[in-house]
Task: structure prediction
Amino acid sequence: MSAAPTATASAVRGWASISALGLVTITAYGSWFYAFGILIDPIHLDEGWSLAALGAIFAAAQFVNGIAASAGGRILDRWGGKALFGVQACGGAVMLASSWATGGPLFAALYAVGAGVIGTTGFYHVTTAAAARLSPTTAAKGITVLTAIGAFCSPIYLPLGQLLIDEVGWRGAVRVFALTAIGGALIAATVASGGATPEGRTPSARPLAALGSALRQPSVRWMLAAYFFAGAAYSSVLVFQVPVMKSTGIAAGTAATLAGLRGGCQIFGRVGLIATVARRGARTSLQVAYAAAGAGIALLLIGSVSAGIFYAVIVGIALGATSPLQAIHAQELFDPDDLGMLMGVQHTVFSIAGGLGPLAAGFLADATGGHRTGVVAMVACVGVSVALLHRSR
Result:
């Protein structure tokens, strides 16, 4: 008689944990990964720092995020979400401190470290692994729900963040962004404290050996190469989408709204995704998403509001599908006992590329006096990802 209520209560707790993971995804990504794109121009105008220097700050945050990603996954494997998200709250505090830094080098160091720690403990490589373990019999569904919640990140942070910058300036906006990251981390630490390697199973005592074993698989190597080029393209377009649109004459508020629309459309990339994966497979579905993203990014070259709307819809849907598809495809290839750490490895590749991409785009913008060449490079990188992913069968 008590089995059904117990099962129901367990299911409710499981989905509450998935929802908390979705919330921390919104605050972790939104607080800097998405928000930095609308901070670039205000910082550039107020402080006089070059676009290349600002791209370097974002790149440094991405490098911290990427290099430490496996450590974040290892924390999840061994100690669960409470420890992981506790560390994330500390990263939010460091990012908060950066808003009072008056010198460029100090701001860059504090912001990069704080944002990087938030990323390594709150991005999809850890939240999807935690979701898969919290709902092991319905892992793909848990991941899809988590990423569907995460799709609300851009619609929240980009338009509201632009209004915030207009009202309190970029430093005040950074403070609010950091406080939301801390709040999301503390909620997740309380509600989604599980997610460690299941009882009866243990993560490898020799993580480097486990990593070596994974990298000896050709399919893993091709997958990681594809994720590298996709990471460079996606990160570049997310950082520079607003400046690119503004450079074509689109008003700042309209550009931020279109960027928010792109984020809102991500949820449509997750509608029916489970059925699509069952029918086509994660790898093929991911190739289609990459190709659509490349076509959508190319629309930025037209430079009109109508083209911006099509860009927002196409790229939003494609990127929305990409996040869960990359996680599902990677989890098909990785050892479940070390899932957190190995998902961190693929995130390391994606993040390092994501740091190099905006850095290169910033240099191209400074060198050419515009963003056109950078956009072409983004489209080319996505095309390379489609070709490389074909080899990861």
About this structure: Confidence is low (pLDDT under 50) at residues 1-5.
